Sequence to fold (116 residues):
Amino acid sequence: MKKCFFLSILLVIILTGSCEKVTLEPDTDIPDNISYSLDIQPIFDANCTKCHGGSRSPDLRADYSYDALTKNGYIDTAEPDKSFLYTTLNGSHDSRANAKEKLVILGWIQQGAKNN
Ligand code: HEC
Fold:
């Protein structure tokens, strides 16, 4: 009887423990292989091009955005979180992208800011 009691306690700990892990896991994990065209450009299309559509730097339209960002000092792959793109998104542009989008952009820079 005692054994059974301890086993059920153990089971409860394991079950609640694993449930907790699922619910506490933030939905903001950075994915492994972030694609510029599939993950990053759509963020710009949805949130940025209405203002950064050619007349305001950086030009974030597809076909222009990658060069505009990587050739003009907006990206720092040595210190990704110091990248001007990322600091702007956490400064004057804090509300222009959500937490997940900011993390994906940071992850893309951490992964080498590839044009993939
Ligand atoms: C409502 C218009 C608007 C939207 C939408 C917008 N921006 Fe901006 N952006 C500006 C303005 C105005 C500035 C210049 C002032 C400042 O830095 O806030 C700027 C500046 C910037 C800068 C710094 C440029 C420089 O050379 O100083 C970056 C980087 C930038 N935006 C990126 C983005 C990104 C990425 C998005 C989408 C997530 C975005 N912006 C959405 C209006 C906008």
User: Anything to note?
Assistant: The pocket of heme C is lined by residues 44, 47-48, 50-52, 56-58, 60, 74, 84-85, 88-89, 92-93, 96-97 (CB under 6 Å).
